[in-house]
């Protein structure tokens, strides 16, 4: 793997203003680097900010503050116009394969749309013959027959529609694909096929992924590294094997505990998550996980732990990390 950073996010904050003057902190000082050719899995309970982070990384949602450097260029403050040539290099695949496809248009038209809008690498408008050739290429990349191009979205199964969405996302040969729960709505047997397709495409095309999923088994299968989010912050990040088999953060351990043992083998003590996730409108002081943490000590409610290196290809934000010296 070529170990160059493709995307660097520094101190990202995203706040939503709610009615009655309240502020919801969906992202609270998130920093991460996505290396060229890797798959960074983003995990965490519903509402922890995974989708917001994915959308902010691609500038589909505006940041409240922070910097995003993509291919060496700071894109955090670029206008829509200046972003246009960059957008083709970063694409998103969503969970709901049907909602992303206009039901009244043929698959060929849907996939050709970005090819008609964006010029080719030499800045020229693509010819009809070029577009047809590219459509054929994309169909074979995602494992669909050419005949699919003349049909409509409702004629396909969920898994096939996700293949169509992937083909559309790949039309302009992006470097980075952010996939937001791309297999969550699919049957388990189909999930495996689509995860394999993502892996295969990464290898064939040299793609880089940010792969958002709440299902740890899926994330383990596809990710080279994993970032665990809790209440708008990254609490642990590192190599997939290290994080999922030997978690340092009690929250990661609790997430893993919730997965049946044969799916993910782990040495962590069983620790069940107690209580509900606190509101991101008024997150707990200190470590935001302290209200649910079985390990919590007085220091945890007083002092916010920073993400720290533990010399084993992982960082965790915990004063009393599991199995590691504090
Ligand atoms: N447009 C919005 N306006 C106000 N609050 C929002 C908006 N979008 C997201 N939020 C809030 O921001 C927080 C993070 O949401 P986000 O969708 O990013 O989380 P998630 O981890 O992707 O969850 P899920 O898996 O349920 O999609 C949540 O508390 C959510 O309610």
Explain what you see.
By secondary structure, the chain is an alpha/beta fold. The chain has a domain at 5-89 and 226-316: Rossmann fold (3-Layer(aba) Sandwich). It is built from ten helices and twelve strands. The chain has helices at 50-57, 80-87, 107-117, 128-142, 158-170, 188-205, 216-222, 240-245, 250-257, 298-302; strands at residues 5-17, 23-35, 39-43, 65-70, 73-74, 90-93, 176-180, 208-212, 225-230, 233-239, 308-309, 314-316. An eight-stranded mixed sheet has the order 6-7-8-3-9-10-12-11, with helices on both faces. Helix 3 packs parallel to helix 5 and helix 4 (128-142) packs across helix 5 (158-170). The protein is globular. The protein starts with a strand and ends in a 10-residue tail after the last strand. The structure holds adenosine-5'-triphosphate (ATP). Adenosine-5'-triphosphate (ATP) binds at residues 16, 24, 26, 44, 46-52, 214, 280. Keywords: ATP-binding, Nucleotide-binding, Transport. It is a peripheral membrane protein. It is found in: Cell inner membrane. Residues 7-256 form the ABC transporter domain. Its main location: membrane.
What's this entry about, in short?
By secondary structure, this protein is an alpha/beta fold.
SSE sequence, one letter per element: EEEHEEHEHHHEHEHEEHHHEE
Uncertain segments are none
**Which of globular, elongated, flat, extended, rod-shaped describes the shape?**
globular
Q: What is the distance, rounded to the nearest whole angstrom, between the alpha carbons of the first and last residues?
A: 32 Å
Bound compounds, each kind once, are:
adenosine-5'-triphosphate
Task: Provide the spatial order of strands within the biggest beta sheet.
Answer: 6-7-8-3-9-10-12-11
Q: What is the CATH superfamily label of the domain at 5-89 and 226-316?
A: P-loop containing nucleotide triphosphate hydrolases
Supply the CATH class of the domain at 5-89 and 226-316. Answer: Alpha Beta
Q: What is the β-strand count?
A: 12
The overall pLDDT average reads 92
Largest sheet: 8 strands, mixed
Oligomer: single chain
Helical residue percent band: 25-40%
Structural class: alpha/beta
Determine the strand fraction and express it as a percent band.
15-25%
């Amino acid at each position: 793997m070529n170990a160059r950073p493709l995307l660097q996010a520094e101190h990202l904050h995203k706040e939503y203003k709610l009615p009655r003057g309240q502020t919801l902190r969906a992202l609270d000082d998130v920093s991460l680097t996505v290396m060229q050719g890797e798959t960074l899995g983003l995990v965490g309970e519903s509402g922890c900010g995974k989708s917001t982070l994915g959308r902010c990384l691609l500038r589909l949602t505006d940041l409240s503050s922070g910097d995003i450097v993509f291919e060496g260029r700071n894109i955090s403050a670029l206008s829509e116009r200046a972003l246009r040539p960059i957008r083709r290099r970063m694409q998103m695949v969503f969970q709901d394969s049907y909602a992303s496809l206009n039901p009244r248009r043929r698959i060929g038209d849907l996939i050709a749309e970005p090819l008609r809008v964006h010029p080719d690498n030499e800045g020229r408008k693509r010819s009809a013959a070029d577009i047809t050739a590219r459509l054929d290429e994309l169909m074979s990349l995602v494992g669909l027959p050419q005949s699919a191009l003349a049909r409509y979205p409702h004629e396909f199964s969920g898994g096939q529609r996700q293949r169509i969405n992937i083909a559309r996302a790949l039309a302009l040969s992006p470097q980075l694909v952010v996939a937001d729960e791309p297999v969550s709505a699919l049957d388990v047997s189909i999930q495996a096929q689509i995860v394999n397709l993502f892996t295969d495409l990464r290898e064939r095309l040299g793609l880089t992924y940010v792969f958002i999923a709440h299902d740890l088994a899926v994330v383990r299968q596809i990710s080279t590294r994993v970032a665990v989010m809790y209440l708008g912050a990254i609490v642990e990040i590192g190599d997939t094997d290290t994080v999922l088999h030997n978690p340092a953060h009690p929250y990661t351990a609790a997430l893993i505990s919730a997965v049946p043992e044969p799916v993910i083998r782990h040495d962590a003590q069983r620790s069940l998550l107690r209580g509900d996730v606190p509101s991101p409108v008024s997150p707990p002081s200190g470590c935001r996980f302290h209200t649910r943490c079985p390990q919590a000590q007085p220091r945890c409610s007083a002092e916010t732990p920073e993400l720290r290196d533990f010399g084993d290809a992982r960082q965790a934000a915990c004063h009393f990390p599991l199995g590691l010296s504090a």
